[in-house]
Amino acid sequence: MLETMERSSGNVLGFKMIGDVTKADYATLDPAVEAAVRKYGSVNLLFDLTEFHWEKATAWGLDLDFGHTYKDKINKMAMVSHAKWVKHLAKLAEPFYAKEIKAFETSDDAWTWLGE
């Protein structure tokens, strides 16, 4: 499940991933990012993965499409988690999803970085 975070404002959007992410979650993510890109030209994104389990295989195609569509429009992407693998994922995902991706252990640090 994907929820829009209350601190989202302007071109800085945050999403909390809870449990498994599915194809249906892209019906929330894509329109929000598309609207912000149309209005501001680019976005900064926060993905809170502290309660994330995994992404269903049926959503992988939409995930790749998301990266292909918005990579050049996402300036910064913050990934929040205590899991060590997220730091590795951030480095691997950067060329495909955003101009810059960074992993954080707290959402406050991530929001601060996105607002810089």
In short:
The chain is of the alpha/beta class and 116 residues long. It has helices at residues 26-40, 60-70, 85-97, 107-115; strands at residues 2-4, 12-21, 43-55, 74-80, 100-104.
Question: How are the secondary structure elements laid out?
Answer:
Layout: E1 2-4, E2 12-21, H1 26-40, E3 43-55, H2 60-70, E4 74-80, H3 85-97, E5 100-104, H4 107-115
Parallel strand pairs: 2-3, 3-4, 4-5
Antiparallel strand pairs: 1-2
Helix pairs in contact: 1-2
List keywords for this structure.
Rossmann fold, 4 helices, alpha/beta, 5-stranded mixed sheet, 116 residues
What report would you give on this structure?
This protein has helices at residues 26-40, 60-70, 85-97, 107-115; strands at residues 2-4, 12-21, 43-55, 74-80, 100-104. The chain is of the alpha/beta class. The chain has one domain: SpoIIaa-like domains (Rossmann fold). Strands 1-2-3-4-5 form a 5-stranded mixed beta sheet, with helices on both faces. It is globular, with a radius of gyration of 13 Å. The mean pLDDT is 93.
